[in-house]
Design goal:
This protein is an alpha/beta fold and 222 residues long. It is 30% helix and 18% strand. It is built from seven helices and nine strands, in the order E-H-E-E-E-H-E-H-E-H-E-H-E-E-H-H. The strands form three sheets. The protein has a five-stranded parallel beta sheet, with helices on both faces. It has a two-stranded antiparallel sheet with strand order 3-4. 24% of the residues are buried. Bound molecules: ligand 4FV. Ligand 4FV binds next to strand 5.
């Protein structure tokens, strides 16, 4: 998969995407990730990317020209242009699975009060929000999307890192798990898990996942 990111804060991407599984995906060529500075598509001495909103109001908006020029020069068919903003559809595991089927993504991250509406109307194939809270810019949302999507790409997770039975894979939260020691400070592992009765273990785990979801995320049960 190829992912291009358009941002005013390229340095924010150094670190989170240079470690562990995402780093391995980049090293093995399963992911080609490029971070682009929006200011590279400005032509004035001050590299202006923002301006005041028509009709007044607080703050500044991202101007259309630099973003249009950047997207037009970066977009390769069949790349999907995705805006990151609080007014996007709520990103979740099913959308992550959806995006993992794409070959090329162009993530456009916001800043200030957001985008000139013509960016949304004309350039965006999709718009995603990572949650109902306001961040200082769209860099972290882009990294969240990249992490959730790339780990689903075939060959990225080793067999000991499966995405098979994890949270949201069956619409439920994950069942509780224990590892050695079987007893720690008097706290024992549930008998069923050391019983060797695999059918019993599967049944118990499904029940636990349901109980946890009902308690923590009843909205998921609907
Ligand atoms: C955001 C979110 C988010 C809003 C103002 C950047 C900031 C600034 N993006 N999911 N939540 N963006 O808060 O995606 O433009």
């Amino acid at each position: 998969m190829k992912i291009d990111v358009l941002t005013l804060f390229p340095a924010m991407f150094a670190g989170p995407l240079d470690e562990s599984i995402i780093k391995r995906a980049r090293d093995t060529g399963l992911l080609e990730l490029k971070i682009h500075n929006l200011r590279d598509w400005t032509h004035d001495r001050h590299k202006t990317v923002d301006d005041r909103p028509f009709g007044g109001g607080p703050g500044m908006l991202l101007k259309p020209e630099p973003i249009f020029e950047a997207v037009e020069s970066l977009k390769r068919e069949p790349a999907k242009v995705v805006l990151l903003s609080p007014s996007g559809r709520k990103f979740d595991q099913s959308i992550a699975r959806e995006l993992a089927k794409e070959t090329d993504l162009l993530l456009v991250t916001g800043h200030y009060e957001g985008f000139d509406e013509r960016v949304r109307e004309t350039l965006a194939d999709d718009e995603l929000s990572i949650g109902d809270y306001v961040l200082t810019n769209g860099a972290l949302p882009a990294m969240v999307v990249i992490d959730a999507v790339v780990r689903l790409l075939p060959g990225v997770l080793g067999d000991d890192e499966s995405s098979r039975d994890e949270s949201f894979s069956h619409g439920l939260l994950e069942y509780p798990q224990w590892t050695r020691p079987a007893e720690f400070r008097g706290m024992k592992v549930p008998e069923v898990l050391v019983s060797g009765n695999h059918a019993g273990i599967e049944k118990w785990r499904r029940e636990q996942a349901k109980l946890r979801t009902e308690k923590q995320r009843p909205d998921l049960m609907e």
